[in-house]
Amino acid sequence: MAVTVETLDKLERRITLTLSAVELQNEVENRLKRMARTVKIDGFRPGKVPMSVIAQRYGYSVQYEVMNDKVGQAFQEAATEAQVRVAGTPRITEKEEAPEGQVAFDATFEVYPDVVVADLTAVEIERVSSEVTDAAIDRTVDILRKQRRTFTERAADDVAADGDRVTIDFDGKIDGDSFQGGQAEGFQFLLGEGRMLEAFETAVRGMKAGESKTFPLKFPDDYHGEDVAGKEADFLVTLKKVEQQNLPDVDTAFAESLGIADATVEGLRADIKKNLEREVKFRVAARNKQAVMAALETATSFDLPKALVDNELGRLVENARADLKQRGVKDADKAPIPNEVFQPQAERRVRLGLTVAEVVRTHSLAATPDQIRAHIEEMAQSYERPSEVMAWYLGDQQRLAEVEAVVIEANVSEFVLGQAKVTDKALAFDELMGA
Predict the structure, then answer these.
(1) 31-40, 119-128, 280-289: lowest mean pLDDT where?
(2) pTM of this prediction?
(3) pLDDT at 405 over 60
(4) What is the mean pLDDT of the chain?
(5) Taking every annotated instance into account, which residue ranges of this chain make up the domain PPIase FKBP-type (predicted)?
């Protein structure tokens, strides 16, 4: 018998399901009989519980279970026969009227939209590229030196200068009153590295150990501490100690300390360049992928299944709660997070997901095992023990699935860039890394 699919709205459909009341009741009785063999009830030996007692205690739950199973099975068979692609979980409601000897249900559901991608040759995309310069390598060497610097205390008459590590006590007041975060003892920071507000660094610069100074400081209007943002405070600062930083020389010993295989200055710079080029490659790919995805958004137009958007909304809200919990927010699981906050993001993700899936299907862009393995190998090279990273990914199906998704997106990006009107733009290394 052909299945009739009613169209209720753009993507909403309805199928009527009918089940034999006798078959349902027989299945309930069969399950209760199987249950009677092992169920334990006080006052009865196992296998000797009367069926009337079994039915009284478990009849409703078993009937509910059978109904769910049979209706679900009937819906799957009907959807397959009707060749509809169901999006989300159907809403099942029992009908008041049904043919004699049968039970009827309405299954209301959404279907996936027909995704039509516009002609990609007319799409315009800006593709970026970048190179690792000697200046970028120099800056990385400086960072590595600073990570391994040591400090020695300066002479009593030496003044604090940029690059020195200073230890201070300070006490700040606004209108004569202390405020939260305005006091500290034995506080250390490096002058000239921007950790403190400029007025604070200016006041400490040029002081000697043992000196004290009072100075005014106006907090920026956008200061992260809302209680003091835009206000002016008076600070009393006492310089306890000044230490000069000592940076290691860039030589063979320095390269050895970093575990460089070719422990020479040239080997160190070559290793840094290789790592930076790997990072540049990933960042360029990510930026170009964003451009491709934005272009695909404009190249398609279709209705979104509400069920898929709602599912995505649920995931985004749960992720937000998990983030709040990780940050130590009390009762994060109860924090009010309106769905409207994530509605545009959820709709965009669903739209892109359906669009990418259609491009992958139409142009056979699924990730191959070789591509997945190559991507993992490339990522693993950033770690000290690549083989362990490889095993970590290859030994878990969920992690492999995540890598597969990344490779698929890369395939789609490469395909779209090969079709579209592409404008190439070279980015400076600093611009790319700062993005």
Answers:
(1) 31-40
(2) 0.73
(3) yes
(4) 91
(5) 163-248
Q: How far apart, in Å, are the Cα atoms of 424 and each of 119, 124, 207, 410, 427? A: 21, 11, 52, 18, 10
- Tokens of residue 336, six digits: 């009010």
Give the separation between CA 47 and CA 41, rounded to whole angstroms. Answer: 10
pLDDT band at 309 (very low <50, low <70, confident <90, very high): very high
Q: Is the pLDDT of residue 1 over 70?
A: no
Domains of the chain: 5-111 (3.30.70.1050), 150-246 (3.10.50.40), 255-434 (1.10.3120.10)
